[in-house]
Amino acid sequence: xxxxxxxVNHESAGKRTQFIIEGMTCTACAARVEDALTQVxxxxxxxxxxxxxxxxxxxxxxxxxxxxxxxxxxxxxxAVEDGDRAEIQAxxxxxxxxxxxxxxxxxxxxxxxxxxxxxxxxWVVAVLATISVWWSGWSFHHSARLQILQRSLAxxxxxxxxxxxxxxxxxxxxxxxxxxxxxxxxATAIVAFVLLGKWWEARAxxxxxxxxxxxxxxxxxxxxxxxxxxxxVQDLEVGMKFVVAPGERVATDGxxxxxxxxxxxxxxxxxxxxxDVALGAMVAGGVLNGSGxxxxxxxxxxxxxxxxxxxxxxEDAQAGKAPIQRLADRLAAIFVPVVMVLAAGTLVVRVIxxxxxxxxxxxxxxxxxVSCPCALGLATPLAVLVGTGRAAQLGVIVAGxxxxxxxxxxDTVVFDKTGTLTKGQPTVGEVVALDNDSSLLMxxxxxxxxxxxxxxxxxxxxxxDKDASVTNFVNHPGQGITxxxxxxxxxxxxxxxxxxxxSSLLDxxxxxxxxxLGRGLIAEAAVFVRDELRPTSAAAVSALRDLGLEVVLLSGxxxxxxxxxxxxxxxDKVIAEVLPEEKRDQVAAMQADGQCVAMVGDGINDTxxxxxxxxxxxxxxxxxxxxxxxxxxIMTNDPRAVADGIALSRRTLRVIxxxxxxxxxxNMVALPLAMAGSLAPTQAAIAMALSSFFVVTNSLxxxxxxxxxxx
Length: 711
Description:
Strand order of the largest sheet: 14-26-25-24-15-22-23
Shape: elongated
Strand content: 15-25%
Helix content: 40-55%
């Protein structure tokens, strides 16, 4: 399985704390906060994301949250633990708009004076520029002061230095009456267009978080208990029974104890088709009830619900860093000091060459402004934010940003059969018993299978005796189960579980998976279990082939059953009759042959293969062990989502590469032009803003990714 080199085992890392960080203006700010938090004694790992304005910290129980908040405050930011991120982001966007709009108006007037003369125009522009630089641009100067004090230079340092230099030079020239070029209009343009770029960024980041906020908002705020009491969902406790009327959403995860209906999970998991539910069925919080009334017993509340778990997974993925981002972060860390050196060098060289002082300052200011690393800092985190958010909408949960690199390299997709390509709802077709009395054997087998988590066990549910006493239950991976039911020893499984299987049972040629039953070492009956293919499995295989991937069927079932399924789906390569550890060995063998393997499974028996695969993909209908091992979790029952997940991850990686290529090429072209004096500060500000605009709009294209599952 693909692993982030810097990843920490968060499950064993004690507590998980999330802060909303107010006041960050660029990725360098996020890096400063992250570095500081990781230095706190007891903190195992910290991830700070500029795009989401959040920090995730995994730490020991002994770490005081107040200490972490005070540390963030000492850096010039504010850590909020219980705030609403959407509200804080909206407030930041409003604040930017309040400063950006006047700055733009001032810049338009200042630029107009370059072409239209009017009495005392220089003094009017000076007053307007003072308002723009010192009021609209105050946040840049405040952040720059903190950055200089902390010896951590960033984008705000460049903007502050550039605007203050232009304003100060112009003010001195104007007051002294010297006959030199004024740069008030350049200072106003810099403030206006930098703020405009940041406003674009803020709007994009807020809208890109809609998918995660939709998950949080999908559950109702109030719930009606069975006894008629109305209760806040926050006060709901495990074991409470509540009513779900037709058209209402289920308040929390639970088990249906009365009623039948169908539920729509399209907004919570991306599952496109409604699912029938009846007595005993499990329903997740947030699903929309159909036409029937239900009474549900709560089995999980608050942070323990499925929606909360999915939201945490998405947050963790968005807080993580793709390997390609680490390169960008290292470059961004040295980028600002290098630009300042280049600006100083430009100033010195042009003075030595005898250029007029006003022209010298113009070139130096243009160097400072044109190189603001907004585009470089946004290139990766914004694309990851949009891509993982869109994936969550489609029912694909990405475990981390590092997964993007794995999807790029995958060339082989290996599918388990039961529960992935088939519905995972096996039924008993035919039963052949040697003594023609199969009812007792089926009752014993059903009672024993009630202790098993294997999908095949569901086929025996109708034969189980709820009052039966089951002891000595043993699971034999890949072979079957044994145990004692009401004093009778019973075996249920494959040929290898028995010392002898009569030829009359062994030679039966009936459609389905053959399972033997016996009260000893000799098989007494054969049961043929059938499991229907999912209706979209063939389309999923075809879609993966269209992506240039080889598809392999890897199953513990009999070769005949596996080959029949493969033939129906158009899969050429079949590996059958393998034990769980042999599944792992088969994946390892493919990797040894140079293949990059994605494994798709849903059961405990698939966990070893999921763990060793380059990309582990688990179906939500599977076991917790499979989901916790996987890199991608498919929240729907549609295997086409596997192709969606791989295709969207690849497209996200391509967007990141285009963003970074643009950011680097832009600076390679713009910097020399500015150093040569061919780019005025106003032009530099516009170019910088447009550079950020390109990265933002290119990342937002991921929201239009079209899912195969909606066809």
